[in-house]
Amino acid sequence: MDLITIVGSGFGLVAIFLALFFLFQKKFQNDGYLYLYGCLIVLGLELLYKVLILSRAIFDIPWVYIPGRLHNLLVYPLLLLFFSSITNLNPRFRRWYRFVLYGFGLYALYVFLHVLTIPSQSKMEMLQLFYQDKRPGPYNYWRNPISLLKSTLIPLAFLSVIGIQFYRFRKGTSDRPSVRLLNLLSLIIIVYFLFNQFSNSIYRMVHDVSGYSMVEWPVDIGFLSFLILLFSILALMVNTGSVLFPTAKYSRSSLSSASYRVIVDKAKRIIEDDLLYKKESLSLSELSALIGTNPKYLSQSINAKLDCNFVDFVNGYRVEEAKRLMLNPANRSFTLEAIGSLAGFTSKSGFFRAFKKATGMTPNQFLTSRTGINS
């Protein structure tokens, strides 16, 4: 084994070990870094695959050989969801992002299962042709429209959404650790994207110096090892209490997933039965006392099970009440500010902001779309 193979194997195994360690430690709950661990697993598997190709150890396990892998298409939606976890994006958008991730994941699984149907003997023949090494240098991936779609067009779509999301978050927050984390993450994503765009040029330059036509494999192994090193350091820092970045949620919590569910169910029941959401001064401490727990556990439970904070949790009920009041013909003479007050909001601006966050529309737009009446 050469040095590149040893380094690549080490970083690939470390990435998978760290990701699985934190995932099992948090019992697969979203601590804000769930999708970072997913990125580590995907990148670790890709790195190990490239090591198998470079070392030719893949001849010992030919069933692993998968032409046309989809790791790029999995990394970008994972990074997008990681961004949304840090920026506390509207849960409705996060659900759509998850559907996109599931779609890419299912397609990758389909490709993997389809390739498994290829007989091992056929794969051995494919590998032997691959290693005959008759190419006059690295393969030009730009000639393949499918590669162009996977490596450029789809990533650009994700980068556009991430950029817009980051810009809006930075404009409206003073959370310096989160901004610091997203600045670093943005830089890593840009470097990752640019490497994929200009990798052919890098391969060509290294090939001109080394004369080794399959140079893309060691170059990719070196870059992925560096990328995994950055993500691994980040994961270790946030899980050991670094003040530079937002800490991982619930890293020291003694609550189980079942306890979260019980607490959330109690909170929902008492809010709905006693119409507590109409109380303008309802606080986390007050609600936690009513259900027999402490504010910390209630906040953790809401975040873990509903993927939102306490304010958004209560405002969700208020928005639904406001929608009901607006659609009641008996309330046509009420102003939107009065509707918001009846639903439990303390101000018109707070009402409009919460309504837009929950529905994607202002109260005026909602009323017009449902009744044709412009208030």
Report the sheet-strand fraction.
under 5%
Mean pLDDT: 84
| Main structural class | mainly alpha
- Count all strands and give the number: 0
Radius of gyration: 25 Å
Low-confidence parts lasting 5 or more residues at pLDDT below 50? none
Q: Write the H/E string, N to C.
A: HHHHHHHHHHHHHHH
Domain count: 2
Distance between the termini: 73 Å
The name of the CATH topology of the largest domain is Rhopdopsin 7-helix transmembrane proteins
The main β sheet shows up as: none
**Share of residues in helices:** over 70%
Specify the overall morphology: elongated
Structure at a glance:
With 375 residues, the chain is mainly alpha-helical. The chain is 71% helix and 0% strand. The chain folds into two domains: 3-239, Rhopdopsin 7-helix transmembrane proteins, CATH 1.20.1070; 257-371, Arc Repressor Mutant, subunit A (Orthogonal Bundle), CATH 1.10.10.
Report on this structure.
This protein has 375 residues and is an all-alpha fold. The chain has 2 domains: 3-239, Rhopdopsin 7-helix transmembrane proteins; 257-371, Orthogonal Bundle (Arc Repressor Mutant, subunit A), CATH 1.10.10.60. It has 15 helices and no strands. Helix 2 (34-55) runs antiparallel to helix 8 and helix 9 (257-274) crosses helix 11 (295-306). The longest helix is centred in the middle third of the chain and has 35 residues, at 176-210. The chain is elongated. The termini are far apart. 30% of the residues are buried. The mean pLDDT is 84.
